[in-house]
Amino acid sequence: MVRIIAREIEDGVAGALQAEEQLSLAKLISRYLIHLGFESAFTSGIIVQLLTKGKVRVDFSKVAERLELLRSDNRMTATQAMALFEKYATSVRSKDEPPDKGKTVHIVVQKPRG
To answer: How much is the pTM?
Structure first.
């Protein structure tokens, strides 16, 4: 299970609490695959980070989501996490699904807090 805390983003800073929920890892992966696209390297990066570190923050244009494993002992190696993600993504990908023609992606690189 994964805890998701969503906050509004105001001027680049996470603001008011928008929602808090708990989802299974499968439902979270499905949500991100639909939202970011089946061919998105971002989705695998988010999930691998979550499964190896136990938590990750994902910033969208209007909301920041903080994802956290409810049980830290569910963490795994990067190799295990990638294999789990690939197996799940392959199992839900439709055979008739056209290849993703690519989406325009907005990437923001920030200096780490020090």
So the answer is: 0.74
